[in-house]
Design goal:
Blueprint: H1 6-23, E1 34-40, E2 43-48, E3 55-56, H2 57-64, H3 70-89, E4 92-93, E5 102-105, E6 116-119, E7 126-127, H4 146-149, H5 154-158, H6 166-181, H7 189-199, H8 213-222, H9 233-248, E8 267-270, E9 275-285, E10 289-296, E11 304-311, H10 317-330, E12 341-347, E13 350-356, E14 360-361, H11 362-369, H12 374-394, E15 406-411, E16 416-421, H13 461-477, E17 482-484, E18 501-503, H14 514-524, H15 536-556, H16 578-586, H17 592-597, H18 600-603, H19 611-625, H20 664-672, H21 680-688, H22 701-708, H23 712-727, H24 731-746, E19 750-752, H25 753-764, H26 771-790, E20 798-802, E21 805-809, H27 812-828, H28 837-844, H29 862-872, E22 876-878, E23 885-887, H30 892-898, E24 908-909, H31 911-921, H32 933-940, E25 946-948, E26 963-965, H33 974-983, H34 996-1013, E27 1017-1022, H35 1027-1037, E28 1042-1045, H36 1046-1060, H37 1065-1072, H38 1079-1092, H39 1100-1106, E29 1112-1115, H40 1118-1122, H41 1127-1135, E30 1145-1150, E31 1159-1160, E32 1163-1164, E33 1173-1175, H42 1178-1193
Parallel strand pairs: 27-30, 27-33, 28-29, 29-30
Antiparallel strand pairs: 1-2, 3-5, 4-7, 5-6, 8-9, 9-10, 10-11, 11-13, 12-13, 14-15, 15-16, 17-18, 19-21, 20-21, 22-23, 24-26, 25-26, 31-32
Length: 1194
């Protein structure tokens, strides 16, 4: 160091600080134990745990290689790969893994066995806890020698800011080559790159004889030069297991020799229970235990799946017992989203904990599929915050909340997915140890908390909620947020930098909730705990409200009338829920034609979709199929094309009959028939109607006169004559005028010319094939209708020109209002990412609506307000299916980035499919280019898609070749990739349930059982005709419920109060029949208030009702809505599951049109999100009512 130049000393100093920063707080037996960073006269020095007899892997191999068997090589590689996966779980990427960076420690009791390993030399590493390191990124080649460079991924050597785990997988592939071939894959890094260019990846068979297909595939897939086609760490370990199976061959003895190194298919013996478990999969190895998924039972097809955590040694037995202790405590009263501890035992001499199976790891799902889709994000987010709320209420912590410790379990026959928290091994860590947990999820402001004098900071509930918020963000974006300083540079320790601010990737949030989610995360992750949510329950409510608000905007927007619907109508205009719209958009379906072409298997078995959403799509498809019987189901790839069909389009020549069914073409012929086509007046008329070749739509009289170089009267006089002589008594124009008035009224008093043209064309249809000419003819008919209306004694509407727009309005104030909305829309789309619907509506609602004709305030629903703003603007457009404003001519790169979620539905995409999906979302954006420029745009947008030029994406069209695909599936080599294209995306194989009714019954019953277990509030909806049967079925299925007839209860108390006041019951009934606001009605309200208590202050009668220790089923709540007292439902909801309240409250609501928002007599029932509402299927009512009927008939 004394001989180093200043530049070299600075480089070393930065490397030391980098390594210290990365390893701080990380304790893992597979990583070298970091102790401290020491600053001395000779520069910084790192101190680590010392192991006197340890050797680096290159030195260990030099001593042992001659006696290293293939089995030993496998075991060594497996230990290294497991350590790499644990490092990735800590969000650490090594980037320069080589034999020089692996420390081998002899096993104490068996020094001749394969050693334990630790990963060292982290100065080149990066952390995925930040999107970019900010300590000064270092090039790997400045910190490693040529021997180590051979094992480095090409992208890690060339891109100093590269932070993907596939770089370490590449190194694992090279290490596998070293262990099985006995030498490095090449002499220099440049030679490795040359091999990759020629072969695509490393092929061991080129250097070693007798290489198995499994080993060849393991190394090749791990070392592919194309990053997107390289194995993930999980896939590498799966492929490594296949290598072991090949090495082991046929094993006569199926009992594992070592419970810490068991393999798929081997058996583990329970010493205490004298039973055998079969290993299904190895889940991973941690600091204290190794985990396996096991099956219990002789019949493997019916065996129950469990998880075993087996202690690595006797010193870790206490850790196993401690975790069992905390899980046992959590089991009383229990929570359905926390893993269940079955028992502790001893497996082949090792202490072991047997757990329920938590399902697929959430982290693996996020790595393979990206952020969760809208529906699943909403539900699993509720689950996560419900877990945190439960732990908070009973005074416990998890201490390591993150996707790696959360599972997605499938419950019931319909595979409904739910979130399960596991790995509570850190729950008993001392509260004073602030760095316990995982980097990136630990609250960086914990050390700076204000504490009483003399006390050190301690872990608290705010830190637990911080980890939950980070996890929610990762569930949304598949990435972590960043903290940046005043110049936008990321900081590694925001708690030490007062200028650090939170930076969110809000353009990756679902558009309907973009602004709400941004506000949620800014609050949840605020550096000041006083500005965060006060508790987990408040955070849970806020999360639910984010999606509730978005769904409310969707559900309250008015669907367009059926007779205006075409096959080209955007689905957002049909009144579908946000969950359904988001799922259909994921499939590339944005218009009605696509929905009609959709096949059941295309949407019914997709992961993470509720049965309610599936049923909604099924019902909407069935509904519109009746209107468009000629539309046939088709492949997903064909969606988005075709010409429009129209409801009720009849071409009739009978002017006296069916006027509303006359086509645009026929109407225009009637309008023009009085004036010869070749006459001067006929020419003027055609030009005024916008049919002239050189004039735009809706020209002014002066424009026509100037065009023909004549005085205005030369044009105006003949036109007035036509209007007075021919049009005033025209039945055709009378019908047109009525159509226009209906359109304007339906659009709340204002409609743009373009909107009116589209709507009128949808109503009447046209035989004209050319789109532009069809639009021009329709505007001509509109012009004639409007001018004809102006000649009436009392015109109902008029046309107002504002700048370059024409508005059809009932009052000129509406045109000015629309203009102001348009100006706001132009301002909003001047920024990217486009504003969310909530933010747009907030801005638009600052403009007051004009008064209606009766003097009352006007009002536009949300969907109409946004559509009008876009139509009235100069530069704003409205996305087809997302109610999202964006600028016209949006650059292709921005459109692709914003529409990246639309590309997640298929693993294989052609150029045309990508272009279509982006165009369907942003139809007025710049068109996407073809290849090769599209490759660059996809890469810049962060989409992990690779181009396969010879792929056959559609077996039905063998002439079509070339497609994009995500990373190859496990076990696919270059030759196998093309068969993947011909099967994966087009010929999906599903195992459909044999009985859909049985599935619906099972799913419903599971929801009910879960709600009862969780002591939850739940609103049950059923058609009115089934209300009595449903109540009986619920009581039969869940006899623990105490049933209360709400109307009967209220009437009983009203009668008692009336009797005390000496008011006869007929007088009360008379008051009930009185008009609201009258004296009688007000007197009745006083009685009701006495029975229920004033709003916000429940009466003693009501409090006594909710003090029950039995769960409540409330039926017949109609009078609460009638008397405007749905605040009582708020009270019931808030009391459910509390210490003083009933252990659950269910309300049965008869509803003729059940949906996401329950209503009682047109009054919304106050709920917090879809998880508090359930539509009872008729099949469930029938099933449990049938049992009830059988019992009562005996």
């Amino acid at each position: 160091h004394d001989q180093a130049t200043p530049e070299e000393r600075e480089r070393i100093r930065r490397a030391a600080h980098r390594e210290a920063n990365l390893l701080q707080g990380v304790r893992d037996h597979g990583l070298i134990g970091y102790c401290d960073l020491l600053e001395g006269e000779r520069g910084p020095a790192l101190s680590f745990d010392y192991h006197a007899d340890a050797l680096t892997l290159d030195r260990w191999l030099a001593e042992r290689e001659s006696i290293l068997s293939h089995e030993d090589a496998y075991d060594l590689l497996d230990k290294i790969a497991q350590a790499v996966r644990r490092a990735h779980n800590h969000r650490l990427i090594h980037r320069a893994l080589s034999p020089q960076s692996i420390l081998c420690l002899p096993q104490p009791n068996n020094p001749g066995a394969v050693p334990e390993i630790k990963l060292i030399n982290w100065q080149t590493a990066q952390s995925q806890a930040q999107t970019r390191m900010t300590m000064g990124t270092l090039h790997i080649d400045s910190l490693i020698d040529d021997r180590a460079a051979v094992y480095c991924a090409p992208e890690a050597m060339t891109d100093p800011e590269y932070v993907e785990g596939t770089a370490d997988v590449f190194s694992l592939g090279c290490l596998a080559w070293r262990l099985f071939a006995g030498e490095p894959p090449a002499k220099t890094h440049l030679s490795v790159c040359r091999i990759l260019q020629e072969q695509g990846g490393l092929k061991l068979s080129a250097a070693v004889d007798g290489v198995s297909a499994e080993l060849e595939r393991l190394i090749f897939n791990a070392t592919q030069g194309a990053v997107g086609r390289r194995s993930s760490i999980d896939t590498f370990l799966d492929d490594l297991e296949e290598v072991f199976n090949d090495l082991a061959g046929d094993r006569p003895e199926n009992l594992a020799t070592d419970p810490l190194q068991a393999h798929k298919g081997e058996q583990l013996r329970d010493d205490e229970r004298r039973t055998l478990y079969t290993v299904v999969a190895k889940l991973g190895r941690g600091a204290s235990a190794v985990a396996y998924r096991l099956s219990a039972g002789d019949d493997q097809s019916k065996a129950k799946t469990l998880v075993a955590k087996i202690a690595l040694g006797p010193e870790h037995g206490d850790t196993i017992d401690a975790e069992y202790g905390i899980l046992s405590k959590l089991a009383s009263p229990g929570h359905p989203n926390i893993v269940q501890a079955n028992h502790v035992t001893t497996i082949m001499g090792h202490r072991a904990l047997i757990l329920s199976d938590a399902g697929e790891c959430l982290a693996a799902r996020l790595r393979s599929h990206g952020g969760l889709q809208y529906d699943m994000l909403q539900r699993l987010g509720e689950d996560l915050l419900g877990i945190v709320d439960y732990l908070e209420r009973i005074g416990e912590f998890h201490r390591d909340l993150k996707p790696d410790n959360l599972g997605i379990a499938q419950a019931g026959k319909n595979k409904q997915q739910t979130l399960i928290a596991f790995d509570f091994s850190l729950a008993r860590a001392p509260l004073e140890k602030l760095h316990v947990g995982t980097r990136g999820y630990i609250d960086p402001f914990l050390t700076s908390r204000k504490t009483p004098k003399g006390q050190s900071p301690r872990y608290d509930t705010a830190a637990e909620r911080y980890a939950a918020a980070i996890t929610l963000y990762e569930m949304t974006t598949a990435s972590l947020p960043a903290w940046v300083d005043g110049i936008g540079k990321e900081v590694s320790e925001p708690g030490l930098d007062p200028s650090a601010t939170l930076r969110l990737q809000s353009d990756r949030f679902p558009a309907p909730v973009r602004d709400s989610l941004s506000a949620f995360f800014h609050k949840a992750l605020h550096r000041n705990t006083d500005a965060r949510f006060d508790n987990a329950r408040e955070m849970w409510h806020a999360w639910i409200q984010v999606f509730h608000d978005a769904n409310t905007i969707s559900s309250t927007s008015e669907a367009i009338p059926d007779d205006q619907v075409t096959t080209e109508t955007p689905l957002v205009d049909l009144g579908l829920s946000q969950n359904a719209l988001q799922l259909l958009e994921r499939l590339g379906v944005t218009r009605l034609q696509g929905l009609l072409q959709l096949r059941r298997n295309d949407y019914y078995y997709i992961k993470g979709v509720t049965n309610q959403t599936r049923q909604e799509i099924k019902q909407e498809k069935h509904r519109w199929a009746k209107h468009f019987p000629d539309i046939e189901e088709a492949d997903l790839a064909t969606f988005g094309g075709g010409s429009a069909s129209f409801i009720g389009t009849v071409h009739s020549n009978d002017e006296q009959g069916g006027l509303t069914d006359l086509s645009i073409d026929w109407c225009l012929e009637r309008i023009l028939e009085e004036e010869p086509h070749d006459s001067r007046s006929g020419t003027y008329l055609r030009d005024l109607l916008g049919l002239g070749a050189n004039l735009g739509p809706w020209p002014a009289i002066i424009d026509v006169a100037r065009h023909h170089d004549v005085a205005q009267p030369s044009v105006n006089v003949p036109y007035l004559k036509v209007r007075q002589r021919s049009w005033k008594r025209s039945h055709t124009l009378e019908a047109i005028r009525d159509n226009i008035h209906q359109l304007i009224t339906a659009h709340h008093g204002v409609i743009t010319l373009e909107e009116a043209a589209d709507a009128l064309l949808a109503q009447r249809g046209s035989s004209e094939n050319a789109i532009a000419l069809r639009r021009r003819k329709t505007i001509a008919v509109l012009r004639a209708g409007v001018d004809n209306e102006n000649d009436m004694a009392e015109p109902r509407f008029q046309a107002i020109r504002s700048q370059d727009r024409v508005f059809l309005v009932t009052d000129p104030e509406w045109a000015r209002y629309a203009g102001r909305l348009g100006a706001i829309a132009d301002d909003l789309v001047a920024q990217l990412p486009p504003p969310s619907a909530g933010r747009v509506l907030e801005a638009l609602r600052t403009v007051p609506c004009p008064s209606t004709s009766d003097g009352g305030p006007g009002m536009l629903d949300a969907r109409r307000q946004m559509a009008l703003a876009a139509a009235a603007s100069s530069n704003a457009a409205l996305s087809t299916n997302r109610q999202e404003l964006y600028p016209k001519g949006l650059p292709a790169a921005d459109a692709l980035r914003l529409a990246s979620g639309a590309l997640s539905g298929l693993k294989v995409l052609t150029v045309a499919e990508i272009q279509t999906r982006v165009r369907d979302r942003y139809p007025e954006a710049e068109l996407l280019p073809g290849r090769p420029r599209l490759d660059t745009l996809l890469s810049d947008a962060g989409l992990d898609l690779e181009w396969f030029p010879d792929a056959q994406p559609d077996p039905g069209h063998p002439d079509i070749r070339g497609a994009y695909a995500r990373r190859l599936s496990k076990g696919s080599g270059m030759s196998g990739s093309y068969s993947m294209f011909s099967t994966t995306s087009r010929s999906r194989t599903y195992h459909a349930p044999r009985d859909e009714d049985a599935d619906a019954v099972a799913h419903c019953h599971e929801r009910l059982q879960a709600a009862l277990t969780a002591r939850a509030f739940l609103v049950l909806q059923t058609p009115p005709a089934l209300a009595l049967l449903a109540a009986a079925a619920i009581q039969n299925a869940f006899p623990a419920l105490r049933s209360i007839d709400c109307d009967r209860w209220l009437i009983d108390h009203l009668q008692a109060i009336a009797a005390n006041r000496r008011v006869t019951w007929p007088i009360v009934l008379k008051a009930d029949a009185a008009v609201e606001g009258t004296r009688d009605w007000e007197n009745l309200q006083r009685l009701v208030s006495e029975a229920l208590g004033p709003p916000g202050k429940p009466s003693s009668n009501l409090q006594a009702l909710t003090s029950s220790n039995e769960p409540l089923l409330i039926t017949n709540p109609g009078l609460l809505a009638r008397y405007g007292r749905t605040d009582i439902i708020d009270f019931l909801r808030d009391s459910a599951g509390t210490a003083d309240g009933p252990p659950g409250v269910w309300i049965l609501v008869p509803n003729g049109n059940p949906g996401p928002q329950p209503v009682i007599d047109h009054t919304a029932v106050p709920i917090f999100g879809a998880s508090q509402a359930l539509v009872l299927p008729k099949a469930w009512v029938a099933a449990y009512r049938s049992e009830y009927a059988k019992e009562t008939s005996c």
